[in-house]
Amino acid sequence: MIKTIKHLIVIVGCVYWSAAQGQIHINEFVSSNVNGITDNNGKHSDWIELYNPSNVSVNLENYSLSDEDEESHKWFLPQIALDPKSFLVIFASGDDIKVVSELHTDFKIKKGGEKLFLYNKLGQIISQTPKVALADDESYGSAFDGSSNYVRFSESTPRVSNGESKSVYANRESGYYQDSFNLELIGLNPCLEIRYTLNGETPTKNSVLYASPIWIKSQTNRVNRLSIVPTTPLSGPQILNFFKWKNPVRVNTINVVNYAGFCDDTLATSIYHSTFIEKNIGDIHDFPIVSIITDSLNLFDHDTGIYVPGLTLQNSNWTGGFPPGNYGQRGRDWERNIHVSYFSENEELEWSTKAGIRIRGGGSTSFAQKSFTLYFRSEYGMSNIEYPFFEDFNFDEYKRLAFRNSGNDFVQTHFRDALLQSLLTDFNFEGQQSKPSVVYLDGEYWGIHNIREKQDKHYFHELTGIGKDSFDIVNTCGDIDEGDNTDFLALQDYVNANSLVDDANYQYVSSKIDVDNVIDYFIAQIYTANYDWPYSNMKLWKSKRPNSKWRYIMYDLDFTFNQDNSSGFWVNSMDHVTDITTWERSECSSRIFRKLLENEKFKEDFLARFAFHLNNSFSVGRVTAAITEFENIYRPEMEEHIARWGFPESMTAWDFQVNALRSFAKERPCVMLEDLLEFFEISKMDFQCIDSLNSNFTVDDIIVAPNPVVNNTLVVKNINQDLVDGDFEIIDNQGQVLIAGELGVYPLQIDLSYLTNGFYWIRVNRGGSIASSKFVLMR
After folding, report:
1. Cα separation of 742 and 748, whole Å?
2. What is the domain-level CATH number for residue 132?
3. Residue whose C-alpha is closest to residue 407's, from 161, 243, 198
4. Residue 470: inside a domain, yes or no?
5. Which of 268, 383, 484, 583 is placed for a possible disulfide with 263 were both Cys, Cβ 3.0 to 4.6 Å?
6. pLDDT at 426
7. What are the residues whose beta carbons fall under 8 Å from the beta carbon of 356, sequence distance 6 or more?
8. Which residues, 6 or more positions from 4, have their beta carbon under 8 angstroms from its beta carbon?
9. pLDDT, the chain, mean
10. Do both 763 and 654 map to the same domain?
């Protein structure tokens, strides 16, 4: 078998050779040179290798290189001869050096990937490479010197033949395909035997021996391995019913191939990972596809798998609350190796690398689908990702990326936090961008995940340009996240010991913390009725530079906006944020804000800014338009997601949850006005909630009162007071109709004595025009 493969190499090599005969060729390049060759200044610059496959020397004067497919920018080579069958290394440092002893282009190669072009003296493209993202010290070059078929080399071969490297060539790159095809693998060294797997498992010397091309075809009838593994306990306290794993109804699948070369039963090459997406599967998704390939034991092993309850649950005495599990473990010991490929909405492979993965989150780690963070390290592959994930964002380099299951919103809309962050982009704090994606795990559909930047020292380094170890980041009451907490604890002590009624004391505090940031941050949290805050989900940051001020960071807004009773539009969040007794960390978490409220100027600024946001940022028209936008973005994907995870229960249930957002958007401004007037004991603000109601409600909108319902009678009204013809239904969160009847005397009054406390929906049908509203029964 090995002889057959050797023979194939010779034949194919000859074919490629003749195709490239006579042309100077881009033979190899490195875009992240960390430990490879150095230039004359001792720098590890990126480099491009040219090769002359001909039998004559070629003068390269007026040949040119470019990293742009337009001819507007070219770097021209000086007079230099490239001998037959010889190599020339040109450093891509951006230094623009044209000394024959060492050449440097005036551009650098983007690590995130870009095409390279070589032009002859006539300005014709004679060689070009595809866009490819490379790991540190990884090179990309011709499978055979001078050929136009490229392969990744784990060990680069500058100035010598690429045949010196032990690698495996594949005739197809990861990507989309319309028709089934043969995947051909060729060992580029005579000793290599190729072993492969088709299920995500790591190839070993005992894996299938490659003897003939692998037939890549539709995976429609594939038997799923991972999707049938329960990722929550299957029995336990009642809380489990809220998020317990369900057997999937449908799981789409794609092809994944892992392969490697072995010499004498010893791994001799990198392990290669390919993802092939059937076109009709790709057409199902409007979101980018993220293909994660990993040994299944990394995630699902009972003792060490990070995605299952496993040994941690077994060793616990779980009697209530969120169930413990391996998924709740933290730190580097619970980071696992993966390979990840990112395919854009345009069906292009944008980048591909090995990385580390950890489960992230608090209570939501107990849910069937889990959030995770990807860690990009040079020991795996690419040390960071260069890619513009988020539109209108001022940087595109990431050391870590979070993939969220939408937290507590996993069982509801799956976009609540992303929606709210989009509404807050003009606020004076650091929030989170969002990009929806769908994940495939070892070829099996794993549902919607919202991509987020991780707000850590790497994030703030990219944001500010300050060194990544020059930041202090603290949690709720000063717990250290990064750096040091000494300054923050001193500030906490100062506000605790001094009255901020005194303007001098207030000015001192203002020199330590960005007051405008405080105002916008607390307004956003209060308006959205975030229940899982401030005693949790609170962070502040500052640089270590002199006169730097603390600033609040916005994240995790999934327990808000009618998520449940505690975050309904009727909730008095001013009382919630100033409550210092209910929760263990209530006092220290809100201390700075409560003390600032002692100062008259701060109160005036806070109320004026709140009125501005109610009139603009939180206007009913703006917020409901954003909800509709997100609804339209997510709707096409939700059916597949629900079929995979069973949450929410159906598209009807999802529609109910989206309408709950609309209900909050319409009702919250007037509730906020009332709460602010009461809390600050004032008679008016520069905001008229009636304007919002009149401009955004129609005759088909309904208003339920009281909400919550504290007795047994629900009263239903509408603006025009003509809700008399039609019918109604009371529906639970599972979409089951519990009460139905005819409209009649206005206002409609419905007896709820037969229902238990909880969330419900009323749906009113008036001649085919349907309006609905969420309400809470809380006797």
Report:
1. 9
2. 2.60.40.1260
3. 243
4. no
5. 268
6. 94
7. 335, 336, 337, 338, 374, 375, 376, 377, 380
8. none
9. 91
10. no
Domain that holds residue 730: 699-777
Q: In what order do the strands lie in the sheet with 727-731?
A: 737-742, 727-731, 758-766, 769-777
Same domain, 624 and 745: no
What is the distance between the alpha carbons of residues 629 and 662, in angstroms, rounded to a whole number?
A: 12
The 3-state DSSP class for residue 709 equals strand
pTM of the model: 0.84
pLDDT of 528 higher than 80: yes
> What CA–CA distance (Å, rounded) separates 56 from 200?
47
Report the amino acid identity of residue 333: D
Would you tell me how many other CB atoms lie within 10 Å of the CB of residue 131? 15
Percent of the chain with pLDDT over 90: 76
- Distances 56 to 24, 49, 65, 82, 338 between C-alpha atoms, Å: 11, 18, 21, 9, 47
| Domains in the chain, number | 3
Predicted local confidence at residue 583, as pLDDT: 84
Residue 441 lies in a domain: no
For residue 762, give the CATH number of its domain: 2.60.40.1930
* Residue-by-residue DSSP string for 560-594: -SSSSGGG-TT--HHHHHH--SSSTTHHHHHHHHH
**Residue 770 CA to its chain's centroid (Å):** 35
DSSP string, 336-385: EEEEEEEE-TTS-EEEEEEEEEEEE-SGGGGSSS-EEEEE--TTTS-SSE
> Does 566 score more than 50 pLDDT?
yes
Q: What are the two backbone dihedrals, phi and then psi, of residue 72, each rounded to the nearest 5 degrees?
A: -70, -25
Give the chain's end-to-end CA distance (angstroms, integer). 77
If asked whether residues 625 and 659 sit together in one domain, one would say yes
Tell me the pLDDT tens digit for each residue of 452-477.
999 999 999 999 999 999 999 999 99
Residue 674, token pair as written in the block: 């009332």
Tell me whether residue 67 is in a domain.
yes
Percent of the chain with pLDDT over 70: 95
